[in-house]
Every structure is written in structure tokens, then in C-alpha cells.
Amino acid sequence: MSCYGRIFFFVMVLFVLILYLLLYYWVAQNSLPSKSTGPIDLCQGEIARDTITALKYNKTFIIAPYFDKRQINLTRVIGIVHHNEVRDLYCWFCCQSDGKVSVERAAIDVHSDLFGFPYGTADLLCVEPQNCDPNYVSIHWSPKGNIVQLPRFEIKNRDDKTLSVQFTVCISTMFGNYNNVLQFIQSIEMYKILGAQKVVIYKTSCSQLMEKALEFYIAEGTVEIIPWPITSYFNVSSYWHFSMDTKDIGYYGQITALNDCVYRNMYRSKFVLLNDIDEIILPIKHLDWKTMMSSLQEQNPGTGIFLFENHIFPKTVYSSNEAFNVSSWSAVPGINILQHIYKEPDRPWAFSPRKMIVDPRKVIQTSVHSVLKAYGGSLEVSRDIAITYHCRDPLQGNIPKKFLIKDPTLWRYNLSLIKNVNKVLKKQYFKWTMKKVLQVFSEAIGNTFKGTVIDISTYKS
Fold first, then answer.
1. What residue spans of 103-149 are helical by DSSP H?
2. How far apart are CA 121 and CA 108, in angstroms?
3. Number of helical (H) and strand (E) elements in the chain, helices listed first
4. The dihedral of CA 377, 383, 385, 389: what is its sign?
5. What are the DSSP E strand ranges found in 228-268?
6. Are the CB atoms for 107 and 240 separated by under 8 Å?
7. What is the pTM of this model?
8. Is 82:59 a contact under the CB 8 Å cutoff?
């Protein structure tokens, strides 16, 4: 072979070798499995993240599914349905082990407390398939379809948790641009004094000032806000019965929110209180909820539902004790509950609604003033032990003060309550004042350039 032939051969071998190495590198790079930061999700469909999810082509709205093993392993989906028109629903379970889909027909258990409204709370009950252990479920009006096109919901309460708090207060719902800031702060501080570690609020709307108070308690770790955009889906009523206001659903979906709150806190709170923000379950015989509930449970073993009489303390009738007319609170919108210690007399012939402290693990379905279905018994607690302090508009009209009943039980907490409220207002007042100062300064700068003189004294902090 000539010299040129050997050179040509060497070049060709080198070229083939380089080509082979490049091809090998390319194949190796594209065949390597990508790094994974977690387990592969075999389930398909977009995960629903809103508090309320409307299903397509069906008058059904899903709040959340919860694993319920108290009798058999089933998924209890809390929802809102049109009770006359929704007949068939199916649970599409995505099995964790292999991603296969198992479809089960749902038993639709509409709660009995509809109060005439077309829409109401419903439990969609689906027995879970064996050897599936689903983490997600989709709800559909048909057993046929494509699960990829259905929203999927994470099944909560799948894992047992150690109870992390003693008392959780469920407030439903905050609506109507709520602005009773002072009474709100006083109620939260009273809940904390009495033993609450967590307050869950289903919020539709509130004022900007109220929003700041909420932000304070969220940062503190006391308040948890559940967005409740019920007005985006329904023509809601602010009344409890359809005959009073012919809308889609009663009182801003309060009953649905209460049921969701019970299940949401079933395995993280020993007790759950179901009351409104203008109500305080107030011990008479004891100083706090813990000692009160220990005594009640010891005397009533097996009881999980405790109902407390509602007592109206009219916000229109004031105490003559000026010690509780705290001047620094006058700039805060809302009611000062320490000034209202006169309650309306009993009306034995009238229905007296009660509010509740419950063991959430014994509740199946709840209404506002009673539990509809439960494991175990319930107890109507004597007024000598505790009452529901309810400071609001008078229920019996403008009864003269001399016919009202003086009950200063709330005053025994006055030192702690005043101190705690002042602490909150001091922190928040600085923030609100600084915000207003910055707003005034900003507007002053803007108006200066426009040649306009403003009077800063017209701004109130």
C-alpha cells in the first residue's frame, strides 16, 4: 500500500471511530432515565384546588372528599347538590398501586336540614375498592367517560394524625363586607382565654380593616382562613328558610361549611366548637373549656355532643359601669361586649337554639343548632354550667332595661381580655396609622405637583 493509501485508511478509521463515539454518547444521553424528585404520579386529571368546584353538566358542587373508616372504608365527599335533580353520581378512584381506575356508584345522602331551599348539603358515599388505597377521586354523573377530563380531588384524612390541639372554633360564614372589628378581636381573645388554639373561618367577604385583623391572627397562628366564594356559584340567601327569601341556598351555605369544618378537624382537634363570631360558649361553673369538658365527659361517658343554651345580650342595652368603656377602643368599629351584660328573659314557649361543642370523631352530619347523625349520645348542658353568650340585635324588641336579667359572668375575664385586646390594637394601630400616614404623604406629593393644597387634618387615623 502506498503512502497516500495508508494515510487515507488511517483517516477513515479515525473518522469512523469518532462517529461511533459521538453516536454512543448521543444514545447514552437520551436513554438515561430523568432524575425524579418524588414518586411518579400515575393518576391523571387536573387536581382541584378551589374550596368549591362546580361539576360540568350537573347541578353538583364538590367541597372535599374525606376518608371515613369509622364503620367501613369509604370516601365521604362533602358537596352541595340540587336535591330534586341530582340522581346519579359515581366515584372514579385512581388506585395508588398501579394507576388503574375503579368506578363505584355513590350513595347520595342529602342532609335533612334543607329548610325548603333547592340546594343543600349532601354526602356522596363511595365504598373504596379493595387493594386500591386511593389518594384521589373524581366525581362524574356517568360510569363512562375519560378520567383525564375530570377534576380530581385529594382524599383528606387518609393518614391518622395525633390530635394537635384541644379546641378548635369553627366560624361560618363571614360575609356582607363584615366590619365588626372590635367584637371580632374580643371574641378571638375570649376563645384563646377559654382554651382555643385554632379558629377556622369560612370567609366570603369582609372590610379592609377586618382583613388587617385577620392577617394579624393568621400570622400569629390562631386563625385559619378557608376561602368561601359561595356567591360565585349560587344566588345566596341571608335567611335560614326558603319562605323568607326564595334563593338557591340558605345563609351563605353555612351548613355545608360547618360539616366541612368538622371533617377537616376530625383528626387534629379533640373538640370542635360550632358557633358564630358574635357568640361565646361561656362557662358559668368553671373557668375554662378544658375543666368544663373534663367534668362533663366524666359525668356523661359516651356522650360526644354538648349543646349550650343561647342567651341574647342586646347590643342596644349598656352597662352603667364606665370602667369597661375603654376610650382607646372608640376608634375601632364594632361592639364592645364588656358593656353588654344584660340578657333577655326566657320565653318557654319559643324555640331556643343552641350552639355546640362536639367530639368531631363522633359526628356524622351536623346542622347549625344540633347534630343530625352521630355515634353516641348528646347532652343539653344546664345553664348553671355554661351558656352561649350572644351579643347582637335584640330578639324580643326594645324591652326596658329593668325587665332584662343582669349577668356579669363575662366580667370575671375583664383583666385578661382588656390587656389582650389592647396588645392587639397597639400592634395593629401602628400598622394602620403608618399606612394612613404613607397614604396621606403619597396623596400630598401627588396633589402638590398638581398645584393643589390639601388639609391633612381631614384624614382620620
1. none
2. 10
3. 6, 22
4. positive
5. none
6. no
7. 0.84
8. yes
Q: Residue 161: what are its φ and ψ, rounded to 5°?
A: -125, 150
Alpha carbon 418 to its chain's center = 28
CB atoms within 10 A of CB 385: 16
Q: How do the pLDDT tens digits run along the chain, 461 residues long? A: 555 556 655 556 566 566 655 555 444 444 333 333 334 455 778 899 999 999 987 799 999 999 999 999 999 999 999 999 998 999 999 887 777 899 999 999 999 999 999 999 999 999 999 888 899 999 999 999 888 889 999 999 988 778 899 999 999 899 999 999 999 999 999 999 999 999 999 999 999 999 999 999 999 999 999 999 999 999 999 999 999 999 999 999 999 999 999 999 999 999 999 999 999 999 999 999 999 999 999 999 999 999 999 999 999 999 999 889 999 999 999 999 999 999 999 988 888 899 999 999 999 999 999 999 999 999 999 999 999 999 999 999 889 999 999 999 999 999 999 999 999 999 876 555 545 545 544 554 555 545 444 443 343 33
Q: Whole-angstrom Cα distance, residue 400 to residue 316? A: 11
- 116's grid cell: 325548603
Q: Cell numbers at residue 101, please?
A: 381506575
Distance between CA atoms of residues 234 and 84, nearest Å: 16
Name residue, grid cell 394524625: 161
Measured at the alpha carbon of residue 10, what is the angle toward residues 7 and 14, in degrees to the nearest 5?
140
The Cα–Cα gap between 307 and 378 comes to 8
End-to-end CA, the chain? 101
| Cβ 242 vs Cβ 236: under 8 Å | no
CA distances from 177 to 6, 129, 184 (A): 91, 45, 13
Left if phi > 0, otherwise alpha if psi is -120 to 50, otherwise beta: which for 67?
beta
* Sign of the alpha-carbon dihedral angle for 258, 394, 178, 335: negative
Could you tell me whether strands 354-358 and 371-374 are parallel, antiparallel, or unpaired per DSSP bridges?
A: unpaired
DSSP string, 304-361: EEEEEEEEEEETT---S-GGG--GGGTTS-S--GGG--EEPPP-TTS---EEEEE-GG
Element (H, E) at 427: helix 414-449
Which backbone phi and psi does 195 adopt, to 5 degrees? 130, 0
- The C-alpha cell of 44 is what? 391523571
Q: d(Cα 158, Cα 165) in Å, to the nearest integer?
A: 19
Q: Cα–Cα distance between 60 and 47 in angstroms, integer? A: 17
Q: Which residues make beta-bridge pairs with 309?
A: 354
55 phi and psi, to 5 degrees?
Answer: -85, 145
Q: In the 8-state DSSP scheme, what is residue 55?
A: P
